[in-house]
Model the fold of this input.
Amino acid sequence: MDTQNPSAPARPQSAPAANPSCTRRHGGGITHDNTRHTTRFVVIGNHLVQHKELSLLAIGLGCHLQSLPTGAGADIKSLAARFPEGPTRIAAALRELEAHGYLRRERHRTETGRIVTRTVSCNQPNASRREPADTGCPPARRTPPPPRRTGHKALPAVPQPGSKAPALLQTALDLLADLRRRDSRLLLSATDTAHLVPGVAAWLERDVAPDAVRHALTAGLPDELLRRPAALLAHRLADRLPPPPPFRAPPAAVPPPRHPLQNCEGCDRGFRAPTPGLCRDCRTAARP
Done:
């Protein structure tokens, strides 16, 4: 009685109960057979895939953009070549995503000056324009304009004089303008001359004679072509700047002589003079 028939079929296993939250009352609805992803996957929020206002094409396109690596083509032409939908429908879907905050298209200027459009795919829409939500997208960066390229580097700094007296600066200007008479390679532009004038004035201010300044700037120049004469002169003005002159105390003021008292021979009034005679009033009255 207690012996079981080993050839009897096994008791059928009951099917797993469906998730009650996913099963309709009539027994239909979707169930999921999911396997956990470990590589090559992207996390998409339900707010996108279950969006009530986006079209199905826009939702699918938004998911596709989220899965693309940085730098992949996301323009209308590239997307139209990838999917069977035409450029018109893809452009409309992109506008939907842009209107709901899932997409930004920004214009940037490259280093060569060319204007390019960059597509930024956001995994969450902005809550508002004034207070954006944490979308996971980096803030928009404006590409700075390329630096202006000049033909030469900036000239070296030159010493600065303590005085800006017009006569001092004019002497320095005349000295620099005269250098080309000694060496034609030292023909300077007006801009270069204006940069060098304070340096020459600093030398003159240190009691260096103009001829000595001229000699310091022109002696021992190389024989080859001077590509940047102003830079060479600026370097010499700074590198060979002499020390200030030694301090010299001003000569002591000599007090005026104090003459002895004399009695005027005309009015007998006392006055100071080196020799006897008439006072100033009597001398004035005696004049014809």
Summary: The chain has ten helices and four strands. The CA atoms of residues 94 and 173 lie 65 Å apart.
